[in-house]
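User: Can you help me understand a structure? I only have the sequence.
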Amino acid sequence: MKNNRNKSTRRKTNWLHTIVANQELLLVLLILVILGSVVVKVPGFFSVETLFNILRDSMVNVVFALGVFLVLLTGGIDVSFLAIGITSAYLAVLLMPSQGSVLLAIIPFALATLIGGIMGLINAGVVIGTKVSTLIATLATSAVFMGTLFAFGGGVIINNLPEPLEILRTTNLITAPGAMRGTTRLNILVVMVIAIAFIIWAFLRWTIAGRSVFALGGGVEAAQRAAVPVNLVKTMVAVVAGSLAGIAGMMFVTLAGTADPTAFTGQELNVIAAVVLGGTAITGGKGSVRGTILGVILISLIRTSLVPLGVPAIWQQTMVGIMLLLGVSLQALSTRTKPIRPILEGSSRSGTVDLGTKISEGGQ
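Assistant: Let's start by predicting it. Here is the structure, written out as tokens:
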């Protein structure tokens, strides 16, 4: 009888662990619940126009989030990505030709990627050289980057972008009838976002360097014993994260049609919350590209749906903070509900003693 109770307890624990640990599934369910709630109150909310609005709102943050995701995988927290993004984009706009075809738009994107990578290298140098945490180091470098931008740029907003970027801004992948009037559009840059996400996924899944990122997040000492070049991996991740931030900043400037040095002020929480909600462990070593994208979409959906639900827009940051707390709480709960794996399980008929022992399972 006792054996049956133990088996039943294990089944319940395994079921609870499966539900809690799969944050991607929880995100999908939460997205469906929010959509359902808004549609009940505003029947016309669910439309192609709404879908395009959410995708447009998510595009830039997905690229930012993928950079933050990589840094979190190594066990660090980067808060300089927005400063890198706007600084790279602003400088790239200043340096590019003012006239030309849309093909010349590759120049500012390449420049922003290069500048962002250099800033990421500076981050890595500070972290490795001073041996301080990534959070403290990037807090300092973020202030340096923004201070330098304002010192040389004077905080002037560039309202007239070069012609190639203006053409790119109005080049759409899909154009469809709007829900209320006119048309709704999805910019061609969404293709770049999909390509970047696929490249990051493939890098983490299929390369030794990608696996080294996960290994580093599992612990520096363990990674060193496994012959992982810790400093090299940290540098690689910082440079890639900086390059992604540069691309995201350039995308934002292109889509917005203006280069404003203050555009991202105070927006770090939205991206970090999305990554944590997507299941990336704040201690490193666990996470996925798919979960990161779902987290960004959820945050964007919340921002889009608050007004139709009758919630003042001023509560947006409060909701994002609640979502961040939810993500951290789910990670903690997942750790506490790890299933029991029996080392030796006997039956009452054979007279063997049940020695069920709790063994922690590693996060995948």
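Now, to help you interpret it: Confidence is low (pLDDT under 50) at residues 339-364. The radius of gyration is 23 Å. Let me know which part you'd like to focus on.
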